Amino acid sequence: MLYGKEYCQLTKTPAPENVNIIDILDRGLPLIVIDEIARMFDINKSQASTRIGVSIRTVQTRKKEKLLKTLSLQESDNALQIARLMNDALEYFGSEQAVNHWLKTNNKGLGDKTPIEICNTGVGRE
Q1: d(Cα 26, Cα 118) in Å, to the nearest integer?
Q2: Which three-class secondary structure string do you get for the chain?
Q3: Are 105 and 117 in contact (CB under 8 A)?
Q4: Which domain holds residue 107?
Q5: Does the pLDDT of residue 1 top 80, yes or no?
Q6: Cα–Cα distance for residue pair 51/25, rounded to 1 Å
Q7: 70 - beta bridge partners?
Q8: Which long-range contacts (CB under 8 A, 24 or more apart) does 32-35 make?
Q9: CA–CA dist 34, 49 (Å, integer)
């Protein structure tokens, strides 16, 4: 499955068989993926939620609701893309420590911002 590795990393469950990733995104990834993104990037949950385009307050509200304990389609898509970014960076840099150093170091080519600051958009992730 496309993005199967990222799905497994974020949800800590095996990727469902015979299911299209688009169908999974339509249903929404569980809110726990924010915790995993925070862990992967060594950032807090508020920063992790911002990276995928949702406020931490909205996440907290959704956790309290009985029916909606998932991310939206766009938020789920962003989460998978951010996990892909981490995997690509790991392949390039070789360790989470090196990736996290790179992500948190100002870069003149990015307008003196850190890569983690701009990865909340598709263009920034590219």
Answers
A1: 25
A2: CCCHHHHHHHHCCCCCCCCCHHHHHHHCCECHHHHHHHHHHCCCHHHHHHHHCCCHHHHHHHHHCCCCCECCHHHHHHHHHHHHHHHHHHHHHCCHHHHHHHHCCCEHHHCCECHHHHCCCHHHHC
A3: no
A4: 4-125
A5: no
A6: 17
A7: 30
A8: 33/71, 33/76, 33/79, 34/59, 34/79
A9: 6
Give which of 17, 47, 22, 49 is closest to 33, Cα–Cα: 49
User: pTM for this one?
Assistant: 0.89
Provide the sign of the torsion angle of the four alpha carbons 16, 122, 104, 59, taken in this order. negative
Q: How many domains does the chain have?
A: 1
Phi and psi based region of residue 20 (left: phi greater than 0; alpha: psi -120 to 50; beta: remaining): beta
Q: Which two tokens stand for residue 32?
A: 């726990």
Cβ-Cβ contacts under 8 Å for 88 (sequence gap 6 or more) = none
Residue 103 corresponds to which tokens in the numbers above?
């992500």
80 neighbors 126 (Cβ within 8 angstroms): no
Does 2 have pLDDT greater than 90?
no
Residues shown for the chain: 126
